[in-house]
Design a protein that fits this description.
With 299 residues, the chain is α/β, with parallel strands linked by helices. It has a single domain, classed as TIM Barrel. The protein is built from 10 helices and 9 strands. Helix 7 crosses helix 9. The N terminus is likely disordered. It binds zinc ion (ZN) (2 copies). One zinc ion (ZN) binds next to loops. The site of one zinc ion has 5 residues, from loops.
Length: 299
């Protein structure tokens, strides 16, 4: 991945975002999960164990979404990244999922995807190397909201102590500034490099249960979220209802919150339920809660 994308790169017309991917319809049972991480990135077991668990839990569609490698910019040898598929294991990840397709043919429809970080000037869903992998879909996610003075990247998907430290050192202690930068990055991603699915839209709230730093009812917060949803609707992306924060006991609600799902419904944005499973036994964790939230939101 030596060729870095230009920040001015126009969106690549792969196919219309979201085409042929399962999206939630109230009249049909939900039987898919497109957000899973195996041992090829930061998950726990082999892809095969996820496929077996998917069958055992009544799914008929399973997607693998390994974290895409983050290309290091020339001259930088460490961004502090630990969760991604390595360049060395990327080929083995793609092969392993391809082999499973054959093995589970007729029992389980297996899709090959990746969860791609959006990091301005470094990586995004339109990165040219992703195009040649023949992926079925891309989840575009913002984890990284800034860089520390030493150059390492700082993600909102971190533990509470690291979270507070990042807000202080990168954003001068301003939660509002940090949250606004997080959503600004999502808007920039969906406008310039629209993925098929926008990952865990309000991940920024992950540490809110522990730290109580954010009032989700605040006017400025809702305005920021609504502006982002307008951009997503315009781009035609799917929004996932992601239960991963619940499965790992960070949140008591899925991503995104109910008021966001209600607005998604008003804008006609398609949604899909996923568990962001990092172990096979979490393959359908809290899907019942996600289904209830979608019902409450009017889907
Ligand atoms: Zn993620
Ligand atoms: Zn994920």
């Amino acid at each position: 991945m030596s060729n870095l994308p230009s920040p001015d790169l126009p969106p690549i017309k792969r196919w219309p975002p979201g085409r042929d991917l399962p999206t939630f319809r109230s009249e049909s049972p939900w039987n898919a999960n497109l957000h899973t991480h195996s041992l090829y990135c930061d998950g726990k077991k082999s892809p095969r164990k996820y496929a077996v668990s998917a069958c055992d839990n009544g799914l008929s569609i399973l997607g693998f979404s390994g974290h895409a490698p983050i290309p290091y910019p020339p001259g930088a040898d460490d961004l502090g990244v630990s969760w991604c598929t390595s360049l060395e294991s990327l080929h083995y990840y793609l092969e392993a999922v391809r082999e499973l397709r054959t093995e589970f043919s007729g029992r389980l429809s297996i899709l090959q995807g990746m969860e791609v970080d959006y990091i301005p000037h470094i990586l995004g869903p339109a990165h040219p190397t992703l195009k040649i992998m023949g992926l079925d879909y891309i989840i575009g996610s913002v984890h990284v909201a800034g860089r520390r003075p030493d150059g390492t990247i700082w993600t909102v998907d971190c533990r509470t102590e690291t979270f507070r430290d990042g807000v202080d050192t990168i954003f001068g202690g301003s939660i509002e500034q940090m949250v606004k930068e997080y959503y600004r990055r999502i808007r920039e991603m969906v406008t310039n490099q629209p993925p098929d699915i926008v990952g865990h839209l309000d991940l920024v709230k992950k540490n809110n249960q522990a730290l109580q730093f954010l009032d989700e009812a605040a006017g400025w917060y809702r305005a920021e979220v609504f502006e982002t949803l307008d951009a997503i609707a315009q781009a035609g992306c799917i929004v996932e209802v992601n239960t991963g924060g619940m499965a790992r006991e960070y949140t008591q609600e899925p991503y995104p919150s109910l008021f966001i799902l209600q607005r998604c419904r008003e804008l006609g944005i398609p949604v899909a339920i996923s568990s962001d499973a990092h172990s096979p036994k979490k393959i359908t964790a809290f899907f019942d809660v996600a289904l209830n939230r979608l019902k409450e939101a009017g889907y």
